[in-house]
Amino acid sequence: MIKLNSVTKKINLDHVRLILSFFIIAIHTYPLSFLGDFQDYLFTRIIFRIAVPLYLMITGYYILKKSLKQKEVLINYFKKISIIYLYSIIIYSIFLIKNFSNWQVFLRDIFFTGPFYHLWYFPALILGIITTYYIIKYIPEKYQIIICAILYFIGILGDNYYGFLHTADIFTSFYKFVANITGYTRNFLFYVPIFLMLGYKISKEEKSIEKRANIIYIIKFLILMILEGTLIYRYSTPLHTSMYFALPFLSYFIFKYLITYLNKETNKNIREASTIIYIIHPWFIIILTKINIIKNSLVFHLIICLFSYLISLLYLKIKRQIQKLHLT
Predict the structure, then answer these.
(1) CA distances from 302 to 15, 35, 133, 294, 309 (A)
(2) What is the pLDDT of residues 204-229, one digit of tens each?
(3) C-alpha closest to that of 233 among 305, 175, 160
(4) Residues near 52 by Cβ (< 8 Å), separated by ≥ 6?
(5) Which pTM was predicted?
(6) b/e per residue 58-94 (b: at least 16 CB within 10 A)
């Protein structure tokens, strides 16, 4: 009989990235909408919101600690993500061109929101990791997490909790100003730093949490986030649904569990596959929506996942063939 520990030790954080990429597809495809609006909301707008924070925490864990010792690591990572983002802009350039006549919107698309809805992640990551790096470098350690938490708090009031505050002019004026510049508060300043910082802090921690206690924390904060999301669903009109008060706590304990009990080796191929899946999946959503022959939302989602995964495998195969040609 195969022991659970022997199985988990074969899984690493890059396998987790791959799973998270399918969570993100679900956020964009509403797979459980055939069961009802709230059932789909529960997963795609609450539970699956853990995906991007964990992505960011993995980056904070691996990149920030090394960057502080050797700035070249940060520079190389900046170049790498910028190149990926440039390719993504080219792939979705048709959506960028339509705003070319409005230079303000065009610049916002390039530097903050991305030319298509999912590409916000790359400029947010690029600017966010620089922001977090300088917070760590120049702010005393005891204040670092506090500053990131304050930024996140400001952001959350312009995200899930905007509906509770929209009648106050001082809030609406500020968040409209932010929206005109960066689209949402889910951005490099208010959203990204807290999760990068948590990943970095975990990379410095020597003690792990006892397994049973860690799982209990995960369950507690998951329940709190579900309750929080349910209240927002019933009583608020959010500008977006990315930011919850329970989310950083839930992310911390999930990541703490993953980094303690999974294999710490990395797998570049799986990491690249998850990136390709993230970048390419909206094109399949567009195509299948235009064809309009798949009526079941879950089937629609699964086909998008399958096509995106196959494209990522094809990309890796072509890349290997090109590398072989260069070696011969």
Answers:
(1) 18, 16, 38, 11, 10
(2) 987 888 999 999 999 999 999 999 99
(3) 160
(4) 20, 24, 121, 195, 242
(5) 0.94
(6) bbbbbbbbbbeeeeebbeebbeebeebbeebbebbee
